[in-house]
Amino acid sequence: MSRTMKLANRVEKLGVETAFLVAGQAAAHAAKGHKVYPFHLGDMNLRTPANIIEAAYRAMRDGKNGYTPNAGIPQLREALAAEFNTTRKTNYGPENVAVQPGGKPVISKFLLALMNPGDEVLYPNPGFPIYESQIRFHGGVAVPYPIIPGEKNFSFDLDAMEAAITDRTKLLIVNDLHNPTSAECSAEDRRRIAEIAVKYDLKVLLDEAYFDVRYSGESVSLIMEPGMLERSVILHTFSKKYAMTGWRVGAAIGPKSVIDVIVKLNVNDESCTCHSNQFAACEALLGDQSGGRDIMAILQARRDLAVDALNSIEGVSCYRPNATFYLYPDVTKAMANTGYTEYQPFLDAVLKDTGVSLCARTHFGTLLPGENKKYLRLAYSGIDGEMIEEGLLRLKMFLEKF
């Protein structure tokens, strides 16, 4: 009975969402009685709108507590198709929608449906670490393309993206409105990405988790570009706009042939998404939208506080992105002034000295050749305005004392 159970070889390729590791360090620091300023995890400390909560209660009281169709309740699939047809100018029906327990399962199910072992998959780096983890875990070859600084925001290095394509490249992951940098495609970027996908016959995962987390301008989906509808699966989640991170409701939207496979994977994995929560998601789409607007107003105010505070620090430079709830400041000069050359000792010192808990570039993928700038990632979705000002003032004092 003492013999160690031998794990499958693929387990060595399984990564983690590294922001949760930082959260663990922050929790340990707080447990010692220290005040923590949680800029590390893209969770939300905002209340889900009351009408959505009431819809879930009502569904539970009405007996909506059992298994649902594996693809999701018809009402939610129809509402999602209608929403996308309005906002993305598509022609989806409910057969193009598979409801999921959150947005994250769409990543693995997209790969399982379309990727064979040895296939190469292009993904953004820095980027959401689960892309690389799931590609490698399921036997694919993860090929990064860079996110680079531009004049007013970060952008996608499309020359590098195209240069990385080989005969084995089969899939492309695009996270427009990007975690961690808040990079956003221009109209020209969208046109060129679509041309690349069509030219090389790439199947595409469009991660649009932050499509509705927007403060100015209008989000435009890559799905609207010629040739993208028939080759793309969209990742959608209710977590962000409606502060429903813990409700775990999302969806995959795409060609019926792929959605049918994803539904079969639902059968094998979790059977279905929580019954009452799907009715809550219907209310989120079809009901009073004032709660969502209030959430966006709060997030915008937090963004402005954080950007202004960061740009007041010597050696720190930060864009003011129009979407997402992440900031990705360049701290190259500030870190050099401290004498720290590696991220983890720097983050440890910041947490110990100030209580400010942060993620860094290295939490979002392996450094690419030639990278020499230093970046931090701050999420302001889970920290109040007063705490933002106080925490970033402490960070300023820490950095400028050197």
Note the topology.
Blueprint: H1 18-31, E1 37-38, H2 50-61, H3 74-87, E2 97-100, H4 105-114, E3 120-125, H5 129-137, E4 141-149, E5 154-156, H6 158-163, E6 169-174, H7 187-199, E7 203-207, E8 232-237, E9 250-253, H8 256-269, H9 275-286, H10 290-311, E10 326-327, H11 332-338, H12 343-354, E11 356-357, E12 359-360, E13 376-379, H13 385-400
Parallel strand pairs: 1-11, 3-4, 3-6, 6-7, 7-8
Antiparallel strand pairs: 2-9, 4-5, 8-9, 10-13, 12-13
Helix pairs in contact: 2-9, 3-9, 4-8, 10-13
- The SS-based structural class is alpha/beta
The sequence of SSEs as H and E is: HEHHEHEHEEHEHEEEHHHEHHEEEH
Compute the separation of the termini in Å: 56 Å
Whole-number tally of structural domains:
2
Helix fraction, binned, reads: 40-55%
Residue windows where pLDDT falls under 50 for at least 5 positions = none
CATH superfamily of the largest domain: Type I PLP-dependent aspartate aminotransferase-like (Major domain)
Which CATH top level class of the largest domain fits?
Alpha Beta
Query: Which second-level CATH architecture of the largest domain applies?
Result: 3-Layer(aba) Sandwich
What overall form do the CA principal axes indicate?
globular
